[in-house]
Design goal:
There is one protein chain. The chain has twelve helices and 37 strands. The protein is α+β, with helices and mostly antiparallel strands. It has an eight-stranded mixed sheet with strand order 30-31-33-32-34-35-36-37, with helices on both faces. A seven-stranded antiparallel sheet has the order 7-8-9-10-11-12-13, with no helix packed on it. A four-stranded antiparallel sheet has the order 3-4-5-6. The longest helix has 17 residues. It is globular and about 65 Å long. The N terminus is likely disordered.
Length: 689
């Protein structure tokens, strides 16, 4: 197993040579044996690593507690969401003082009505180390709630149904689902998505009739292409049930009138390679966001509800080269479009009568604006969210008729010390090695002198076209108030600068993500925001792959690195189609069964490129039950780094033995891991209070 030597020596994982051969190429993986969650030797190794991490950071334990209490103290414990109206009821989520989990309630007709308790998650979570309430779906007649729970943290949810009039939970229990539930309009038929037991791919849609055995549930759709996932929902108009199937680069939908759940679903537009689309229904038409006809940044089309294939699609908002369409929301009198131009969100309002077309005004370069929960077609009010690096989150209602916006709620930062004017945020542009300008969003406390001595935490994700918007974090204040600068590098692989930005950071251009991050680091150093003695990098999941790549490329640039649930054994994982996510990821990373992709992946895979050299101080975190990035990837990576690195810097692995990809489930429990990460960084800066 492992040989911990004394209390302060790291555990040494044993080596068992395991050969992996393909394309006339053999890789030797000495730590492949860690790929067995049930093996006591594996668990002993992970526990030994946890013990070592604890001993190395023992002197920071009081500081960790201080950080935890400080971050917790900024959060309003007795908090209530802004109510939203659905089908005659106001729905509210609230938290109570000292409690980790939400309480879901509703009120009939008006907000002064008595509270009706839906779910008290603190009671539901009591006997579980991990608990998450997934979806809640209210029946059309408002008398029942279908709900789902995960008590393992592998995103495999069990569905049950609660009678909201009697409080009874029915015997119907459906295991191993995505957690999402959709009612037909008859108040007795439920549709849900099953997961493959091994790969956890969502692959089948089933129909369940209340009161019947779940063994008799009918399979209505089976997605046989293992690069696609499937899901089901009901349109905002309540008229259609929609089965969706999507891969990274292609989508397909099937529709059925929600009044006739026993009829067959009809294909909306059959799948085509590289054709992406999504649909919304209104009146007698469907509205479609699509990349059809080379609309790389997407366009909006419409089509009659009985003629849905793309030969009938007619442009409503044509494609624009510099504007990415991210989302739409349909109201009785208005179409609302969430667009992105030059990295910045815009909310566009267009009246169906053609008389109005304008944008809501936003006034800086480090903000995040997004469409909120708008379930009511007939509303004259748009709900949207807004925040910035220095501005706490707001929920805002905008009245289409009066053009007046009303802040329904601004996130409270408790403690009495936070004032947004004490912080500065801006956007700067670094030039990458190929001449491309890469934006960086920055925030720091006012008055910091840029002389290269400030500690700076540089964060990025850079995969799947997922955009990291510059948003507010009350937790981050614990770093900012101690002199840290925080920087988000909007590297290629995300969609911050449109679809091309994503296309140029995936597959055979994936290395742009890594070199962009490194070039941003060099720019931040050259502009005296920091220096290599004070620069820290942070990324999680696919962002953890980014961390693994940059420390192999330029370890000398960073004093420390945080890697959370990092995807670091790219080749082995992408060759194993029994692992959750693998086959659906081929369009993102490539399929290594193809020799070109194999060698390209191998050239950057962090685990395959560890060398005998100095590496930065590192804290690596993972969860034993992670379904997205299996725990053994970071465990193997740390074991191999320990064996080969030539420095005396810290290398720590912390495994949450109860949690998965999202970390701990309690509202405050997750702050303990943040406190651990922050204490690690601050300790490296000799800041201990």
């Amino acid at each position: 197993m492992t040989t911990p030597i004394g209390n302060t020596q790291p555990p040494v994982a044993k080596k068992i040579s395991h050969k992996l051969s393909i394309h006339n190429d053999t890789r030797v993986d000495n730590y492949y044996w860690l790929n067995n969650r049930e093996d006591t030797e594996v668990l002993d190794y992970l526990n030994a690593e946890n013990k070592y991490t604890k001993s190395v950071l023992k002197h920071t334990e009081d500081f960790q507690k201080q950080l935890f209490e400080e971050m917790r103290a900024r959060i309003k414990e007795d908090d209530t969401s802004v109510p939203y109206k659905l089908n005659g009821f106001w729905y509210i989520t609230k938290f109570e003082m000292g409690k980790d989990y939400p309480i879901y309630i509703r009120k009939k007709a008006h907000l002064n009505a008595p509270e009706e308790l839906l779910f008290e998650c603190n009671k539901m979570a009591k006997s579980h180390a991990y608990f998450k309430l997934g979806g809640i779906s209210i029946s059309p007649n408002n008398t029942m709630a279908a709900f789902s729970t995960d008590v393992v943290s592998r995103r495999q949810y069990a569905i049950q149904v609660k009678n909201l009039e009697t409080g009874e939970i029915y015997n119907d229990k459906i295991e191993n689902t995505t957690g999402s539930i959709t009612w037909a309009n008859d108040n007795k038929t439920l549709f849900y998505t099953k997961k493959d037991e091994i790969t956890l791919r969502s692959h089948k849609i089933f129909k369940h009739v209340l009161g019947t055995s779940t063994k008799d549930d009918i399979e209505v759709y089976h997605e046989t292409d293992d690069t696609f996932n499937t899901f089901i929902y009901k349109t905002k108009s309540k008229k259609y049930l929609v089965i969706g199937a999507s891969s990274t680069l292609s989508s397909e939908y099937r529709i059925l009138n929600a009044d006739t759940p026993n009829d067959d679903f009809k294909v909306f537009q059959k799948r085509e390679k590289d054709l992406e689309y999504s649909i919304a229904h209104y009146d007698d038409k469907f509205y479609i966001i699509t990349n059809a006809d080379a609309a790389n940044n997407f366009k909006v089309c419409k089509t009659p509800e009985r003629k849905t294939d793309k030969t009938n699609w007619e442009d409503v908002l044509p494609h624009r080269k510099n504007v990415l369409i991210e989302d739409i929301e349909i109201f009785k009198d208005y179409l609302v479009v969430n667009e992105r131009e030059n990295g910045l969100n815009n909310i566009r309002i267009i009246s169906w009568n053609g008389l109005q077309d304008y944008y809501l005004p936003f006034d800086n370069e480090t903000y995040n604006a997004y469409l909120g929960n708008n379930p009511d077609f007939d509303s004259n009010t748009l709900r949207y969210g807004y925040n910035g690096l220095t501005t706490p989150s707001s929920v805002i209602d905008y009245n289409f008729k009066t053009k007046i916006k009303e802040v329904q709620k601004e996130q409270e930062v408790l403690g009495g010390t936070f004032k947004k004017e004490n912080y500065v945020s801006k956007r700067i542009w670094a030039t990458a090695r190929d001449g491309v300008k890469v934006p960086i969003s920055i925030v720091h406390k006012k008055g910091i002198v840029l002389d290269g001595t400030s500690p700076l935490l540089q964060y990025a994700y850079g995969s799947y076209g997922s955009t990291i918007d510059p948003s507010f974090s009350s937790i981050r204040l614990s770093l900012l108030d101690r002199g840290f600068i925080y920087a988000i590098a909007h590297v290629r692989g995300g969609e911050y600068l449109g679809r091309d930005w994503y296309e140029n950071g995936k597959l055979l251009t994936k290395k742009n993500t890594f070199t962009d991050f490194v070039d941003c680091s060099k720019y931040l150093i050259s502009e005296k925001y920091t220096s290599s003695n004070h620069l820290y990098a942070y990324g999680g999941s696919a962002g953890g792959l980014l961390m693994g790549a940059i420390i192999n490329m330029n370890p000398e640039l960073y004093h420390g690195v945080l890697a959370a649930v990092p995807f670091v054994d790219v080749v082995t994982t992408m060759l194993d189609d029994s692992i959750p996510l693998t086959t659906g990821e081929y369009d993102e990373w490539g399929n290594p069964n193809d020799v070109e992709f194999y060698h390209y992946m191998k050239s950057y895979s962090p685990y395959d490129n560890i060398q005998s050299k100095d590496y930065p101080n590192m804290l690596v975190t993972t969860g034993l039950h992670d379904s997205q990035v299996q725990y053994w990837e970071p465990a193997k990576w740390v074991a191999k780094l320990r064996n080969l690195k030539t420095d005396n810097n810290k290398l720590l692995l912390y495994t949450d033995m109860d949690a998965g990809h999202g970390g701990a489930s309690g509202r405050f429990e997750s702050l303990k891991e943040v406190a651990l990460e922050y204490a690690f960084l601050l300790d490296l800066e000799n800041i201990n209070h």
